[in-house]
């Protein structure tokens, strides 16, 4: 039985138990407990426990902030160091998926199980037509959540979920690589119809540069004397804020490693020299007018149709270049720098696709060793 005025009891196991009210959850009172050998010991412990709990509760309340507040602050700060296209993409993920789900909840009220269930729902029924989002898209949304968690913790805000729960295995899509026959037909067609944009396609096939890098390329970026081209910019279409409108922007490449010099073969320098126009964009021959990536993609598909080659995205030129380089015996580090990758692993895992003929050649060499 408790002594008058105190919530302290003598237990059957001959210990004293003290309890204090922490709060109420769903109509039920939550208690905190302390134990001791004597009444006095428990009473002293109870005073300390109540004080520490109150202090902790006040501190936790001060450190509470909503998911929406953190996301708004984070995306605003990110604009100073992220590319415009990346910021637009992250804003879309927040607007379409994250804020509708977590926007009005405090960061410390969101648990690991909540985030895991959310990611599963995105994979199974996310998207406008409830068809489920791709693993790549969900992985990028997870990246945003991790950024927000780190941002909140660095500012001493309480966060209820762990970063360890946010992992997803992405499925590797089969990447299109042109066969040797397709390459021969494509090269023959481009040389027979050598317009500036066809010259650009030819350049991509033998340098592996990205479509945005090609569209931003000017003739001044090419040194025929040193037989090299300099990649320092990329072009892309991005959405304007939360509106439906878009605009073309030319910025630095996606990473520091993407700023690079690429050696040019002798024979392609001859064709470049014949078309050289100082100060102009390579694809237009005009200093003011450029061709945007979406237009270049459409022209490339028209070239494939004219060649009788199966449909492929412009990026297939880059995959094909990387594969040809491996087959020619390129050093992996050298190839990685030409492609502008941050690490050799990206080059080997994502862009290199050895043919069966090359694998067989290696096996024969092994057998003869």
Protein architecture, described:
A hairpin with a 6-residue loop joins strand 6 (234-239) and strand 7 (246-251). The strands form 3 sheets. A 3-stranded antiparallel β-sheet has the order 1-2-3. The longest helix has 24 residues, at 39-62. It folds into 3 domains: 8-62, no CATH class; 67-165, DNA polymerase, domain 1; 180-364, hpI Integrase, Chain A (Orthogonal Bundle), CATH 1.10.443.10. The mean pLDDT is 86. The protein has 14 helices and 8 strands. The chain has helices spanning 39-62, 67-78, 84-102, 112-125, 135-154, 180-192, 196-205, 211-216, 266-275, 293-307, 316-327, 332-339, 344-351, 356-368; strands at residues 8-10, 16-25, 28-36, 222-223, 228-231, 234-239, 246-251, 260-263.
The number of helical elements comes to 14
Mean pLDDT: 86
Q: State the major sheet.
A: 3 strands, antiparallel
CATH class of the largest domain, named: Mainly Alpha
Q: Give the number of domains.
A: 3
| Broad structural category | mainly alpha
- Helix and strand element order: EEEHHHHHHHHEEEEEHHHHHH
Distance from first to last alpha carbon = 89 Å
Percent range of helical residues: 40-55%
Over the alpha carbons, how many angstroms does the gyration radius reach? 31 Å
| CATH homologous superfamily annotation of the largest domain | Intergrase catalytic core
Strand order in the sheet with the most strands: 1-2-3
- How much of the polypeptide forms β-strand, as a percent range? 5-15%
CATH topology of the largest domain, by name, is hpI Integrase, Chain A
- Ranges with pLDDT <50 over ≥5 residues? none
CATH architecture of the largest domain: Orthogonal Bundle
- What's the overall geometry? elongated
Number of strands: 8
């Amino acid at each position: 039985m408790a002594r008058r005025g105190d919530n302290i009891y003598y237990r059957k196991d001959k210990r004293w138990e003290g309890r204090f009210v922490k709060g109420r959850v769903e109509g039920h009172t939550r208690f905190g407990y302390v134990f001791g050998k004597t009444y006095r010991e428990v009473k002293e412990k109870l005073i300390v426990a109540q004080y520490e709990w109150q202090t902790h509760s006040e501190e936790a309340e001060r450190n509470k902030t909503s998911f929406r507040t953190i996301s708004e602050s984070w995306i605003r700060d990110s604009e100073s160091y992220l590319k415009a296209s990346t910021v637009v993409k992250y804003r879309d993920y927040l607007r379409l998926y994250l804020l509708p789900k977590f926007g009005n909840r405090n960061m410390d009220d969101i648990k690991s199980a909540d985030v895991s269930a959310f990611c599963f729902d995105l994979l199974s029924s996310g998207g406008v037509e409830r068809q489920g989002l791709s693993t790549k898209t969900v992985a990028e949304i997870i990246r945003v959540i991790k950024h927000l968690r780190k941002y909140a913790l660095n500012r001493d805000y309480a966060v209820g979920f762990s970063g360890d729960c946010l992992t997803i295995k992405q499925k590797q899509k089969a990447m299109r690589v042109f066969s040797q026959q397709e390459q021969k037909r494509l090269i023959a067609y481009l040389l027979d119809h050598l317009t500036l944009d066809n010259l650009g396609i030819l350049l991509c096939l033998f340098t592996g540069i990205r479509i945005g890098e090609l569209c931003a390329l000017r003739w001044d970026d090419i040194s025929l004397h040193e037989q090299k081209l300099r990649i320092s910019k990329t072009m892309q279409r991005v959405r304007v804020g939360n509106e439906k409108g878009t605009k073309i922007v030319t910025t630095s490449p996606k990473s520091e490693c993407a700023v690079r010099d690429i050696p040019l073969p002798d024979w392609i320098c001859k064709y470049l020299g014949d078309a050289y126009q100082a100060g102009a964009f390579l694809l237009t021959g005009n200093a003011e007018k450029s061709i945007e990536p979406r237009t270049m993609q459409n022209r490339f598909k028209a070239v494939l149709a004219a060649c009788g080659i199966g449909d492929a995205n412009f990026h297939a030129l880059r995959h094909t270049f990387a594969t040809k380089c491996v087959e020619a015996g390129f050093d992996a580090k050298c190839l990685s720098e030409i492609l502008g990758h941050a690490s050799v692993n990206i080059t080997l895992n994502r862009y290199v696709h050895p043919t069966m003929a090359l694998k067989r050649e290696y096996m024969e060499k092994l057998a003869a060793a």
